[in-house]
Structure formats: C-alpha cells, structure tokens
C-alpha cells in the first residue's frame, strides 16, 4: 500500500471515528462530564490511536470536548445558560433560514419530511431515535436549503448544543412540536417565506418556554 492509500485509509477511519463519537455525545451515550479515555475508546471502536486522536481533536476544536482543571479531556457539560444562548442564536438565524428555504427547497424533500411526520403522528409510541431523525432532517435540511453555508453551519453547531442538553436531561416529549413542525412544512410547501419565518420563530420560542417551565 503506497503512502497516499495509507493516508486516505487513516483519514477515512478518522472521519468514521469522529462521526461515531459525535453520535455518542449527541445521544448522551457519552454523558456530560465523562472522562474521555482514548485507549479504551480506540479498543471499543477497533481503531488505532492515530484516527482516535484526530477525531478527539476535531471534537475538542468544536467545543464538545473540553479540558478540566487537571488538563484531562472530558465531554462538555451543556448548562442551561449554554442551552439558552444556543437557542437565542437559533432564534436569530433559523427563521431567516426558513424564509430563504421556502424559495429553493425541493418539493420532494418537503413531501418526504411530511411523510416522516405523519408516521410519527400515527405511531402511539414512536421510537425516540425516529423523532430525533426527523428533527435533524427538518432543521438541517432548512439550513442547507437556505443557500447560505455559514447560516447552515451555525444552525448545525447550535443544534448540537441544544440536542445534547435536551437528550441528556431527557426533556424531549414523545411527539414534540407536531403542530409547529406541520406549520413549518406547510409554509415550505406553499413557498410562503414570511409564513416560514413566523412558524420557525414560534416553534423555537415554544421550545424555549417548554424547557424553562421544567426549572
């Protein structure tokens, strides 16, 4: 195997390791405050320490892993203040992204999202993983369809913090925001920019109020 092939393989392993660890953090399988044991994680995932270190470095650079007072790498604890600050950023950006997306989003994508939401609504006890998958597809899809990569990346980053907070504290309801999500999808389908802006703002504000009501 030549040098380029080795580098490509290691890069692919690092990307795969990063995605696995990111999923573990978002799903609270790696909980806030947990010490990151590099060797143990590498053994569990069956990778060498090189791609593991690359993945951990990326997560640390994104603020999802932090060093404690002793310099030990740990999973970041997302506080209520972090959550509210992240949600405030989303309130500034996502309504505008929804308005922009109304003009460009693929109708087939909106139909697929509506079908996902219908399935969740029809299921008396939907799998939380399915609910989160819909939420990711809707919000990340709107960011992508906005046509602004900076806006899309900010939405993704802020949603990571809010997702970690909600999942670690098990704040998600069984069928969260059905009416809000339908209103967003209806605006996207109708290409109603102001309706999309309003529906997204209402949705995020209700999310904020719902979390605050638990404290």
Provide a descriptive summary of the structure in words.
The protein is built from 9 helices and 2 strands; from the N terminus they run αααββαααααα. It is mainly α. It has 2 domains: 3-75, Arc Repressor Mutant, subunit A (Orthogonal Bundle); 80-212, GntR ligand-binding domain-like (Four Helix Bundle (Hemerythrin (Met), subunit A), Up-down Bundle). Strands 1-2 form a two-stranded antiparallel sheet. The termini are far apart. Residues 3-8 have low confidence and may be disordered. GO terms for molecular function: DNA binding; DNA-binding transcription factor activity.
Q: Short summary of the structure?
A:
Helix content is 73%, strand content 3%. It is built from nine helices and two strands, in the order H-H-H-E-E-H-H-H-H-H-H.
Q: Can you summarize the main beta sheet?
A: 2 strands, antiparallel
SSE-based structural type:
mainly alpha
Mean pLDDT: 91
Percent of residues in beta strands?
Answer: under 5%
Instruction: State the CATH architecture of the largest domain.
Output: Up-down Bundle
Task: Let me know the CATH homologous superfamily of the largest domain.
Answer: GntR ligand-binding domain-like
> Looking at the structure, what is the overall shape?
globular
Residue share in helices? over 70%
How widely separated are the two ends?
Answer: 57 Å
Number of domains: 2
How many beta-strand runs? 2
Whole-number radius of gyration? 19 Å
Enumerate how many helices there are, as a single number: 9
* Spatial strand sequence of the major β-sheet: 1-2
Q: List the secondary-structure elements in sequence, H or E.
A: HHHEEHHHHHH
Parts with pLDDT < 50 across at least 5 consecutive residues: 3-8
As for the CATH topology of the largest domain, it is Four Helix Bundle (Hemerythrin (Met), subunit A)
Domain HTH gntR-type: 11-77
GO molecular function: DNA binding; DNA-binding transcription factor activity
InterPro entries: GntR_C, TF_FadR/GntR_C, Tscrpt_reg_HTH_GntR, WH-like_DNA-bd_sf, WH_DNA-bd_sf
Protein name: GntR family transcriptional regulator
């Amino acid at each position: 195997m030549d040098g380029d092939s080795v580098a490509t393989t290691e890069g692919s392993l690092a990307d795969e390791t990063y995605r696995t660890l990111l999923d573990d953090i978002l799903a609270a399988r790696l909980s806030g405050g947990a010490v990151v044991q590099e060797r143990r994680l590498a053994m569990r995932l069956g990778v060498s320490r090189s791609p593991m270190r690359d993945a951990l470095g990326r997560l640390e650079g994104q603020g999802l892993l932090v060093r404690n007072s002793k310099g030990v790498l740990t999973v970041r604890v997302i506080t209520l203040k972090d959550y509210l600050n992240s949600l405030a950023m989303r309130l500034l950006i996502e309504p505008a992204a929804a308005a922009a997306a109304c003009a460009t989003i693929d109708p087939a994508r909106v139909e697929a999202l509506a079908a996902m939401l219908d399935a969740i609504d029809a299921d008396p006890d939907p799998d939380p993983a399915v609910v989160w998958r819909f939420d990711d597809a809707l919000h990340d899809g709107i960011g992508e369809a906005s046509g602004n990569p900076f806006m899309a990346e900010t939405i993704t980053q802020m949603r990571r913090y809010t997702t970690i907070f909600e999942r670690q504290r098990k704040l998600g309801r069984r069928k969260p925001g059905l009416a809000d999500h339908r209103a967003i999808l209806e605006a996207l389908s109708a290409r109603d920019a102001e309706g999309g802006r309003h529906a997204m703002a209402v949705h995020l504000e209700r999310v904020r109020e719902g979390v605050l009501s638990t404290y």
